[in-house]
Amino acid sequence: MNILRRVLLFFCSLAIISSSAAVGIFAFRPDIAQRILDIAYRAFSSPQYLWFSLLFAALLLFLGMLGVFVALAHKSEPGQVIIGKSEGGQVNISLLAIDSVVHKAVLSVTVIRDLKTRIKAVANGVSINLKIAIAHNINVPETATAVQNAVKEQVQSITGLNIAEVNVLIVNIEGK
User: 89 pLDDT exceeds 70?
Assistant: First the structure.
């Protein structure tokens, strides 16, 4: 989630929390609600606060429109990568198929206990991120290197794709 979405989510959540607190208070004390509405009416209808009222309304409108735009905008990652082109057309491979090859390559290194993958198409091929759990008493650097090499060799030999990077994150070292 990018920073703009987080900021909008924060402000929307703050508005919902404030609104729910106000409704809760107003349910028990309707006189407070009437006083707040009277103060707001006098402030926003006063000529000296006209510009403030217009700026406040414009800011709320802008934030609302931005929230709708961010909520509806969908940036999807490509679900496939081009392997080759010819006069007859092009050959693509899905990221799911690449994921299958990656799983088989990682599982060929026998010490792997758990695996999560994230494969992303990049300008110069594919980027592969792995989160793995390994067995206890296994050399971490050797295992990570073996996994990187196995994945790179398998994916390149089967798909012909350039592997931009293979990142390995050891998330757990499981006991005996």
Answer: yes
User: Hey, what domains does the chain have and what are their CATH numbers?
Assistant: 3-72 (no CATH), 80-174 (3.30.70.1350)
DSSP the chain: --HHHHHHHHHHHHHHHHHHHHHHHHHH-HHHHHHHHHHHHHHHHSGGGHHHHHHHHHHHHHHHHHHHHHHH---PPPSEEEEEEETTEEEEEEHHHHHHHHHHHHHTSTTEEEEEEEEEEETTEEEEEEEEEEETT--HHHHHHHHHHHHHHHHHHHH---EEEEEEEEEEEE--
pLDDT for residue 131: 94
68-81: per-residue pLDDT in tens?
Answer: 777 777 665 568 77
Q: Which two tokens stand for residue 145?
A: 């290197």
User: Treating both helix axes as pointing N-terminal to C-terminal, what angle do 3-28 and 30-45 enclose, rounded to 10 degrees?
Assistant: 120
Say how far apart CA 61 and CA 68 lie, in whole Å.
11
Q: Which residues, in sequence order, are bridge partners of residue 131?
A: 116, 169
Whole-prediction pTM:
0.57
